[in-house]
Amino acid sequence: MKNIIEEYQSKLRTPEQAVQIVKNGDWVDYGGNVCFPSLLDKALSKRKEELKDIKIRGNLCFGPIQVAECDPTREHFLYNSWHCSAYERKLSDRGLCNYIPMIFRNVVPYYRHFLTVNVAMMCVTPMDKHGYFNLSCAAGVAKGILDKAEYIILEINEHLPRILGGFDESIHISEVDCIVEGKHDPLPEFPIPKPTKEDIQIAEHILPYIVDGATLQLGIGSLPNVVGSMLAKSDLKDLGMHTELCGDAYYELFKAGKLTNKKKTYQPEKGVTGMVFGSHSLYEWVDNNPGVIVEPLEFVNASEIIALQENMVAINNCISIDLYGQTGAESAGFRHISGTGGQLDYLTGAAMSKGGKAFACLTSTFTDKQGKIHSRIVPYFTGDIVTIPRSQDHFVVTEYGAVNLAGRSTWERAEMLISIAHPDFREELIQAAEKQGIWRKKH
């Protein structure tokens, strides 16, 4: 114990001292979501005038990111994100953030085989009596990044929950180069939004396909969490959790007695995740909870692992879909919104699962800033990034119904998708399908 404490004290620095290691041209990695190193970020931003070409990677960071905000010309700091939060989306709109295309299960292998990390900075829990720091809510990719880093700085965040893990959920003091302490604001909260009428209708269309004992993945975004929270009010029982992101919907399912993990066919009795963010109640629930474990997304999101869960159900949000079945979940035209994340991972894994199903959910319309209503089901894409190729379609759900596109021809897909489009747009979609040669003439 004495040696561990001495080693800790010898590595303790102020944020300003710690960031002196960063030099021109470095690649710097930040911890993601609520493990974002705010003290180190602020200290690094103060070195703006003496540094150039510092490339920074983050992931679902909620901001503010000082290195991005302080340098509108991006001459000194160039920020990039693996998956954009709403805040990072706004940075992207301002030209201050670039997206890194990926599928979540591949992120750590990218680091392992292809990427350079000169300095890694991330928030962790306080050190335990054995000399370990828990990687907490961002453990899904954290250890893989730290393993590749030439220099590791840990920022202690006193508010982070300690989440038990299958593996790679912690790092030992002996592997760390520098430690920073300081006061932090309480963790940001992301409560489940109040469901809209359309959300409720979408959930009602999904419910008949879910059986007792099913294992759930609820994707990033408000709609999957709203749907998940509504499942807590259903008659379903003995549901399981295997997901890249654990949000408040799982806590709602647990409180309602629906989430037991007892019927999981792989890792039973354990709710498995790679990331956590939500309300303070959620953080308290996962803290030292043997029923919730965090594991690397390289493992959690591997399709062959997902497929081991019988009756695996993946519920994800998307932005638009064209009549060919191409699904977009990360951009609106050329405007970047979020990222591929694990959506393709779970669609593939759920489709491979015995009794598994994957749902891509979207409201049938959206209203632009000028008040004009647009269909989310479109004839064809004109600039939208394709997240799910038409060759891997499964269920698509709007407030008007659920259709399964798997194995369907182009004209069948057009018919099915138009049947769940908003009624006001169906006739023009039929006309477009006719022009595109994917509409069967009526007998």
What does this structure look like?
The chain has 443 residues and is α/β, with parallel strands linked by helices. It is 29% helix and 21% strand. α6 (107-113) packs parallel to α7 (139-148) and α9 runs parallel beside α10. It starts with a helix and ends in an 8-residue tail after the last helix.
SSE diagram, text form:
Layout: H1 2-11, E1 12-13, H2 15-18, E2 27-30, H3 38-45, E3 54-58, H4 66-69, E4 77-81, H5 86-93, E5 98-99, H6 107-113, E6 119-124, E7 132-134, H7 139-148, E8 151-156, E9 170-172, E10 178-180, H8 197-206, E11 215-218, H9 222-231, E12 240-241, E13 245-246, H10 248-255, E14 271-273, E15 275-276, H11 280-286, E16 292-294, H12 297-300, H13 303-306, E17 312-317, E18 320-322, E19 327-328, E20 331-332, E21 335-336, H14 343-352, E22 357-361, E23 365-367, E24 373-375, E25 377-378, E26 395-398, E27 401-404, H15 410-419, H16 423-435
Parallel strand pairs: 1-10, 2-3, 2-6, 3-4, 4-5, 6-8, 8-10, 11-12, 11-17, 13-15, 14-16, 17-22, 18-25, 22-26
Antiparallel strand pairs: 7-9, 18-19, 20-21, 23-24, 26-27
Q: What's the arrangement of strands in the largest beta sheet?
A: 1-10-8-6-2-3-4-5
Shape: globular
Percent range for β-strand residues: 15-25%
Q: CATH superfamily membership of the largest domain, which one?
A: Acetyl-CoA hydrolase/transferase C-terminal domain
Count of individual domains? 2
- The DSSP helix count reads 16
Quote the average pLDDT.
Answer: 95
Known CATH architecture of the largest domain: 3-Layer(aba) Sandwich
Structural class: alpha/beta
Largest sheet: 8 strands, parallel
Q: Mind telling me the C-alpha Rg?
A: 23 Å
Unreliable spans: none
Briefly note the CATH topology name of the largest domain.
Glutaconate Coenzyme A-transferase
The level 1 CATH classification of the largest domain is Alpha Beta
How many beta strands in the DSSP annotation? 27
The end-to-end span amounts to 82 Å
In which range does the helix fraction lie? 25-40%
